Amino acid sequence: MAARTVIELDTVRKAYGNGTVAVEGLSFSVREHEVLALVGPSGCGKSTTLRMVNRLVEPTSGRILLDGEDVTTTDPVALRRRIGYVIQNVGLFPHRTVEANIATVPALLGWDRKRTRARVTELLDLVGLPAATYAKRYPHELSGGERQRIGVARALATDPPVLLMDEPFGAVDPEFRRRLQTEFMRIQRETGTTVILVTHDIDEAARLGDRIAVLSRGGVLEQVASPLAVLAHPASGRVRDFIGDGSASRMLALARLQTADLESADRIVQPAPAPVRLGARLTDAFEAVAALPGSAMGRVPVVGESGDVVGSLTADGILGALRRAADAAVSDAPVPDAPVVDAVADAEPTAAADAADDTSGHQPAL
User: How far apart are CA 23 and CA 218, in angstroms?
Assistant: First the structure.
């Protein structure tokens, strides 16, 4: 059964008074519970597209549907209270405590104090910042990564069906960015929220997105597909140029080891090297094969869920697995399931566009 469509853009266009077209005839849908990553070069309309969904920017033409309802026919303030919104610089109110920041939308909706406090505590636990320690702190007392997590908690305060995220991890250092990405994936799995994520980073899009939508300058949609399909089979030269070098190594991080990739277990040289698990990322499998001593004759044992050896893996097996993943991605088909054992703003090109977008940079998710 196909997943329900939560957001649909139907030939959406955004043009400014001076003739600049930021988004041109954009059509795509976002499925329930999925993360759709919008990527593309600067000036491709990613942030403008995101802001049109919650009407911080008004579309010039076309339709944007939220659960089948045209957003341009609804009250914009009421709409924003149904949609979580997270930006790179968070936009926390500096004079309010963490607790008060998270409670912003519940207070506007008239929640009572007991319900609000319980929700704040729940959300702080969800983002890994216990209420006993963080609820009474102010934004200036937090690290950049902590502020970013509070921003996510605030956006989720009223359990919105949709979360819009505009370069949410761009303001932190690479190491902590990776940790925030992992934390976000955990939260999204737990909440099931439907997410549109804007990023300029193809690696982040491939890591976090269930699908990737690649835009080119002027807000033209070049391709919408799974990360593997985009990397293995870019639909145009613009997509290929944006991805750049390194598609194979990125695919190693996405594809997983399957039974079909293995050879017989009886060819493993004893004493056996440390095994990898069936369902492991090909990155881990590659590292295990690359680390083999010469005496192992290029074979790594592979174990199943029970811990029993189910086969052996060679460099040729990894290459075959990569080809299998690429072939499965031709029609955006899902890669066959395997046991998973490891958890895992744009400035517009004109001053007119910049001015139109400035209104969103300091607002909470109302």
Answer: 5
